[in-house]
Design a protein that fits this description.
Elements (H helix, E strand, L loop, with lengths): L11 H13 L10 E5 L6 E7 L9 E7 L10 E4 L30 H11 L2 H5 L9 H4 L1
Antiparallel strand pairs: 1-2, 2-3, 3-4
Length: 144
């Protein structure tokens, strides 16, 4: 599991970028319905999140997760890791989710946090689950 110790201090530019990304979540349609995030008080490189699912296979679930941003963000993508145990083809046993299907390659000037959160929501819908290939699946049992 990724820990808060894994995040080194953010540089001024990275801190400013993350602050702007967080502020942009106030724009209409940037933050998907049912998902809430908040920067960790220990480090701006870690955001805590909770997702209330209301429909589909995971309806009535409450999933906690964290986004961990690398020190060179936005040049490299954040990692998304569930704290709540999740049985999903893209989610490893330690909670880390494979985002390669949505962001391969990661495009620093095009991809933003709100894209990651919308992709996450889509990955749990019926169509998103059907689109997962065996090579993308980190949890082969859930894939079957």
């Amino acid at each position: 599991m990724l820990s808060t110790d894994d995040a080194s201090p953010a540089s001024g530019l990275v801190s400013e970028t993350l602050a702007m990304e967080y502020a942009s979540l106030r724009h209409p349609h940037h933050l998907p319905l049912g998902i809430y995030v908040l920067p960790d008080e220990a480090s701006l490189l870690i955001w805590q999140g909770v997702w209330f699912l209301h429909q589909g296979f995971y309806a009535n679930s409450v999933l906690k997760f964290k986004l961990v941003f690398p020190p060179n963000y936005p040049d490299a993508p954040p990692a998304l890791q569930f704290i709540t145990q999740v049985f999903h083809p893209l989610v490893r046993e330690d909670g880390l989710i494979n985002m390669e299907g949505g962001f391969s390659p990661w495009r620093p000037r095009e991809h933003h946090v709100h894209h990651v959160l919308h992709w996450l929501k889509a990955a749990f819908k019926k169509e998103g689950l059907a689109a997962v290939s065996e090579t993308q699946a980190w949890n082969k049992e859930a894939y079957r």
